[in-house]
Amino acid sequence: MARETNEKGSDSGNTTPRRRAKADIREVGGRRLQPSTLMMGHGYDPMLSEGALKPPIFLTSTFVFESAAAGKRHFEGVTGKRPGGAEGLVYSRFNGPNQEILEDRLGIWEDAEEALSFSSGMSAIATVMLASVRPGDTIIHSSPLYAATETLIGKILGRFGVHWLDFPAGATRAEIDAVMMRAASGRVAMIYLESPANPTNALVDVEAVRASRDATFPAEARPPIIIDNTFLGPLWQKPLIHGADMVIYSLTKYAGGHSDLVAGGAVGSKAVIDPVRAMRNTIGTILDPHSAWMLLRSLETLELRMTRAGENAAKVCAWLRDHPKVERLNYLGFLDEGSRQADIFNRHCTGAGSTFSLYLKGGEREAFAFLDALKIAKLAVSLGGTETLASHPAAMTHLSVPDARKAALDIGDNLVRISIGVEDAGDLIADFEQALDMV
Description:
CATH architecture of the largest domain: 3-Layer(aba) Sandwich
Low-confidence stretches: 1-22
Helix content: 25-40%
Shape: globular
Distance between the termini: 51 Å
CATH class of the largest domain: Alpha Beta
Number of domains: 2
Strand order of the largest sheet: 5-11-10-9-8-6-7
């Protein structure tokens, strides 16, 4: 994370315009400032960059050291020879002003000690896993996962002797315990969760996973709990307070929010982030400065955009719920009272989100007819943007998943995944109505 400077902007021998002298104000008049306020300036002092209101984009590959001794200190930190990390800017594969300001702000949403930015959500996931696994290890994970994540675990890491065991997203404590016990005979590298699951919207009980892990593994051998929080975070779910050790994001989605960048992020304690930082330094999966700068722009409106999209989704789903051509709707605002999913939602979440699964009556033909008839909603993968998107997971994002596993995970040919944007809700309802007429 970006470090403090003196009034002249000097940081342990490395003078850089982005270093902040007075930009770490977290409370005013005894009131703790909210993330939406801190997004406007935290981690950046305009007076250290010629008075520029917004941080400049630092398009440079390397940084000048004030002295040879300073350069040595910085490399000792970057390489891990000296604990504590880099004291200053070294080289853009390791750190940079835009990335460090972004990471400062990412950590705020979940009150995390540390944060890292990556070139994509999958590069974040891959870097985290590469930093943790060894041949012969097991990864325990919830199911379903994003298809590329399943491919990474099952096919790519599997080539290097890494095994996996899974449990369904809505598993009970007893079901989770059974999988933990099966894995406990060997070394478990991590417990990897995705909640809500992509694309079914099923929730994972993070608190039950934490309790099961702590009961199964001795303290010195407890694997970290890592969760992909892309669908609800950081506004509607904060997994660190429910027992997760690290939270991963595709920042392409809600954080970026305008479908114009690709990025990933990870937040958590210093203890779990430091090994990932070392791996990122080695393989170079850090986010580029321009995308980091664009994310700083987007974070300023994150709460506004997510709130509007969530309100729109509630209105659209209320209309879709009783439509005669809709078989069912997996929307977190419609969970059956008293059900396990509702219990998880009530304990873990503060909002139902704006992405949901629509199951049409019929199969691929009906789903394709609906998608092809949309006028306002765009036929595209991804989610969390200002525009409404609709896609067919079985034929698109999860095409590579074997048919039998898709069936077991409820990823059918009649499933359409929809991400609601910030358009007028009435206009979206009109669009879905005319599209359903074509089914």
